[in-house]
Design a protein that fits this description.
Blueprint (H helix, E strand, L loop, with lengths): L1 E3 L8 E3 L5 H23 L18 E3 L2 E3 L46 E5 L16 E4 L4
Antiparallel strand pairs: 1-2, 3-4, 5-6
């Protein structure tokens, strides 16, 4: 484009020049390269530059029926250690300072219709009473 003097010095006259073959080539080449660059960036190079796809990693654990199996090339196998089982005695009881309190919601009052003395109490603390179970034996001291 060239500018020529016009009547107004502040507003020069603009004359369009025809495009040259070199200019057209530059324009279309730039557009094609720009579109190609955008396509390459969005598609990660059509997968041409990634080489071979990496092998799919082995599962950490496989289920074989009722058993669990750790494959040889599993990432979990490197973190596992195998040791021989040793038998050690363990006490089932812990001696701790405590206070035993009854739960009123789960406590039943056992009252006898007769006056007497408890001779035997076959229910112990670890056994839960069932329906029909004998809770105590009474000796009746007298009759009415």
């Amino acid at each position: 484009m060239t500018e020529e003097a016009s009547e107004h010095p502040d507003h020069p006259e603009i004359i369009d020049q025809p495009a040259t073959p070199r200019g057209r080539t530059f324009l279309w080449g730039g557009l094609v390269l720009g579109v190609l660059l955008v396509v390459l960036l969005y598609t990660h190079g059509f997968g041409l530059f990634s080489g071979r796809a990496p092998p799919e990693p082995a599962p950490l654990v496989e289920h074989r029926g009722e058993r669990l199996f750790v494959p040889e090339n599993s990432a979990l196998r490197a973190r596992l250690t195998v040791a021989r089982v040793e038998e050690t005695p363990v006490s089932g009881r812990l001696l701790l300072p405590a206070v035993v309190e009854s739960d009123p919601a789960r406590t039943a009052a056992l009252l006898s219709p007769l006056a007497g003395r408890v001779v035997e109490l076959p229910v112990v603390a670890e056994v839960w009473p069932a329906a029909g179970m004998i809770a105590n034996w009474l000796t009746v001291t007298g009759t009415r």
